[in-house]
Write a sequence for this structure.
């Protein structure tokens, strides 16, 4: 059966221990309990997995990645996710609520400083170099041990270890190197992305965002090319297309309704825009997603 809407899961529904803000587990038993998570779904919490073994693919916001040992991926609330695993898959999974660090850190934007926790798919899937694989695995072992005890300050230890993990992973990313080279430009880029999240339905032109950032459109374009490798206009269009894809997998919405939701003048203009950016029409994208879900359901049925 194909679900008409994308389910949204919360920690208290997924956690075996009914913890409110944090869930830590080996991935194999987590996967055994939550087989339905292979279908497209969303979370209202942060979600990260370190793979230790297994194959197949996983999708984040319709970007497909091969499963590889010592690959780690991060997801923020609201992203669309699905799996198609092959063979035995194991590793570690950590889920935590947006409020988990609020009482621990004074900075409200603490998580947003890490490139892999900003919802940029290309920066959220990272292969761990061999020289630090033992260190990263140790972090997850400590997290698992602390989550299974009732010791004093146990949750604070979990937070402290997660911060060590975040810093270790952040030092691997090109975005971190770019940030060290040009903190000012990196800050502008992050503010640009935050503005897009709030305004992508109404503001479509780089000059409109540049005005809000108090810089010239050319400077904004230069920053995006330097730090992301694409022009500022494409950053905006990519976000619109991503939202369109998220709504297209909701079969309760017609293409015309989605065009209206995204503030397009008419369905024809929306279709042309989507095809130019995604390479297929909205209906073709939806039909392919339906086929993919049927294939996934068929594979799951054969396993059962």
């Amino acid at each position: 059966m194909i679900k008409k809407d994308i389910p949204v899961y919360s920690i208290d529904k997924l956690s075996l221990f009914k913890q409110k803000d944090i869930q830590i587990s080996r991935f194999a038993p987590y996967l055994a309990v939550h087989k339905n998570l292979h279908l497209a779904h969303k979370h209202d919490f942060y979600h990260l997995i370190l793979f230790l073994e297994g194959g197949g693919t996983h999708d984040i916001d319709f970007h497909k990645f091969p499963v590889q040992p010592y690959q780690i991926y991060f997801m923020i609330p609201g992203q669309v996710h699905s799996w198609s695993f092959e063979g035995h898959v194991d590793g570690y999974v950590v889920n935590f609520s947006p409020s988990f660090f609020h009482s621990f850190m004074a900075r409200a934007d603490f998580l947003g400083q890490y490139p892999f926790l900003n919802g940029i798919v290309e920066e959220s899937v990272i292969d761990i170099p061999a020289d630090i694989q033992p260190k990263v695995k140790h972090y997850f072992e400590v997290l698992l041990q602390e989550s299974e005890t009732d010791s004093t300050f146990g949750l604070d230890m979990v937070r402290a270890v997660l911060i060590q993990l975040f810093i270790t992973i952040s030092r691997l990313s090109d975005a971190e190197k770019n940030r060290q080279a040009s903190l000012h430009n990196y800050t502008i880029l992050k503010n640009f992305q935050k503005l897009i999240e709030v305004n992508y339905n109404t503001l479509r032109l780089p000059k409109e965002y540049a005005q809000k950032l108090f810089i010239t459109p050319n400077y904004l374009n230069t920053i995006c090319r330097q730090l992301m490798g694409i022009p500022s206009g494409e950053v905006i269009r990519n976000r619109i297309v991503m939202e369109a894809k998220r709504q297209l997998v909701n079969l309760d919405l017609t293409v015309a309704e989605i065009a209206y939701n995204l503030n397009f003048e008419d369905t024809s203009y929306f279709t042309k825009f989507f095809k130019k950016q995604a390479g297929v029409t909205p209906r073709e994208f939806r039909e392919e997603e339906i086929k993919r879900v049927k294939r996934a359901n068929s594979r799951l049925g054969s396993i059962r």
About this structure: The CA atoms of residues 22 and 154 lie 12 Å apart.
